[in-house]
Amino acid sequence: MLIIRRHCGQSICVGDGVAIEVLECGPNRVKLGISAPKEVQVIRGETRLTRQQNLAAAEIPAKALGELQKHLRADPGEPASTLVPGADAARAISPGSLGGEI
Amino acid sequence: MIFHTKHFGPVTVEETRVVEFPQGLPGFESCHRFVPLEHPASVGLIFLQSLDVPELCFLTLPVRVARADYRLSIAPEDLELLGLPEGRRPEIGLDVVALAILSFSEGELPTVNLLSPVVMHIATRRAVQAIRPDEQYGCREPLVAMELTC
User: Fold this and answer.
1) Is residue A91 within a helix (H) or strand (E), and if so which, with residue range?
2) Which contiguous run of DSSP H or E holds residue B65?
3) Are the beta carbons of B137 and B115 closer than 8 angstroms?
4) Inter-chain contact A54–B42, Cβ cutoff 8 Å?
5) CA B9 to CA A61: how far, in whole Å?
6) Is the CB of A54 less than 8 angstroms away from the CB of B17?
7) Using one digit for the tens of pLDDT, what is the confidence trace for B21-54?
């Protein structure tokens, strides 16, 4: 990682066409202005982390569900129930009722 | 309406159960409609099933199941998106539902994303994946021993 110290008002240039300027410095945070071409994506680090994590979470194969259930059960010795496919077994929940159970 | 789901085949869903994500989720920006599902064989798990992409279904837990003392921290722009007033922390169970997305790799223990929970406004059924502006939790927090009860 390249480490550069900047004062308020100073800037950093990255590659072709990307510039980052320190606009304000506070005790806990910094305000940055970023100029970049339209095709260059600029996102917060934690947004990228979230994106990567969502992509990984979406990859859990359907067959791994049984294994996951074992980790979640209070009694790991209990045998795993099998999912019953079909319109009757799974139920859509209203967000309101989800709220009531917490 | 009957929708095809990743884990359960076709499921009947009423429109009143559908949750709208105006911005989708990071990585899935074009997926706007989801429905939370539960199943008797997976008590405690909430399956967040996409109605736009049948193969897309996030496994989630209510945040307070993962961490009993979890407190929300939502950026102002996310509060606005949800239609919630600024300056007041929404209450879990009263104003909003907060779900943490689970990740699971073979041979590893499952982890839960407490950095960016899915927050649903109960009254409007609008939702956003609200990334915490503070440093309190990570996106791959371990699951501690839990009791999932009916």
Assistant:
1) strand A91-92
2) helix B63-66
3) yes
4) no
5) 14
6) no
7) 999 999 999 999 999 999 888 878 999 999 999 9
Among candidates B6, B139, B148 on the partner chain, residue whose Cβ is nearest the Cβ of A62: B6
Q: What is the mean pLDDT of residues A77-86?
A: 47
Q: Please tell me the distance from the alpha carbon of residue A50 to that of residue B105, in angstroms, as a whole number.
A: 17
A102 touches chain B (CB under 8 A): yes
Q: In this predicted complex, what is the ipTM?
A: 0.92
- B52-87 residues labelled b (16+ CB within 10 A) or e (exposed): eeeebbbbbbbbebbbeebebbbeeebbebbebeee
Q: Is A78 on the interface with B (CB under 8 A)?
A: no
Q: Which two tokens stand for residue B16?
A: 């009143």
At A43-59, the pLDDT tens digits run 999 999 999 999 999 99
Residues in chain B, overall count: 150
Q: Do A72 and B140 touch (CB under 8 A)?
A: no
Binding-face residues of A in 22-61 toward B, CB within 8 A = 44, 46-58, 60
Residues of chain B with pLDDT under 70: 145-150
Q: What is the pTM of this model?
A: 0.85
Of B45, B96, B122, the CB nearest to A72: B45
